[in-house]
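On clarity, I found the account of how folds are encoded harder to follow than it need be. Since the whole study asks how a given chain folds, the encoding of that fold should be made plain. For the editor and my fellow referees, an illustration may be useful. An entry of this sort, consisting of the sequence and the corresponding backbone structure tokens, reads as follows:

:::
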Amino acid sequence: MRLLITNFEDVDILRFLVRITDGDDIDLITTTDGLPAFYSSWIDVVYPGDVTTITKIELFPVIELNGEEIRSIEPAYTGIFEAGDIIAVGCVETDCHDTVDNDGNNLTDCADPYCQFVGTEVNCYDGVDDDCDGDIDCDDSECIDPDSDINTVLMYRFNEGSGNFTCDNSGNGHNVIFGDGSCTPGVEPCPAWVSNAGGYRIDFINDLHTYYLNVSNDEGWETELSEMTIEVQINYTSPGGSTGAILDKSDPGNFEGFILHAGHCNPPYTVACWVIQLGNGTEFKYHRCSMPTSYWYQGVFNFSLVYDSSLASDHLKMYDQDGLLCGSGSTFNGFGSIKIPDVDMIIGLGYYSPALDWDGLMDNIIISNIARTI
């Protein structure tokens, strides 16, 4: 028999003692095997009798106190039934993803009430509604990254490891399509998946061909940002004589958006730099931050950019894993808010020619609508 359990959110409860009365006699006293699973509303109780004659079900919470398990004297739930109220159960939809009507009620898998809202979205990248709540993978609240908060605009952990799609782990729906959405990873225009410690990252292949990720423009972007933080992990495989594009959500004709790129600065290309271009609807301004070229060869490089229009100066600061790289000084004095254009965001694609495409790896891209403390 499967019992529906609601409104038990006390994390101190270990399990329930279940007391079932059949007619006037107590017919079964048993304990459940723990609480319902996270986000589940069901517990299973083995009842050997005729469930249609049950007249009372009582649930007593069992808690731990000073190392001992203590049962509540009073039940937390009491259900009173007339004989025949509980329709039985003998079979249940034992597998909610096998396309088989296991219990013979003409309802299969997630369409069966027994499967709905049971369990968790155990795999956020398999294209299956694991908990039958109507939300699949990225769209399920259980797949939101614990580091995401109300100020996170988008977050890409790239944990899928295959396919030409990746989730926005902030839960805001800014999901990523590889290339044109129909290509095979590693085949132009789709970049490739490569393994990383504890997950995966994206490899933008160095052969002067076009490899990119596309974030379709949709609702959820604010029209302007007075503050912004960009965080990204990169590895620059083979720095050349020009910069490589990282993020581009811009409409240069209307002086809107932002472009982040990196690489060697100017001839003789002995200095590495980050370059950010910002548009406020009236003009585009850029700021460049230099660093030793040897930085590119340190393996994974963590970079953060923080913009805050409310500051008196140094509105924009750039950081690496060792701390502050540079500030913008008076460059953005009076610049105001960044206008966000109604265009797709492109990741890894050069905005002048394929020679400016990103050459290397990317991981953990995060954009926030506040100036975070780095």
Summary: Confidence is low (pLDDT under 50) at residues 36-41, 86-91.
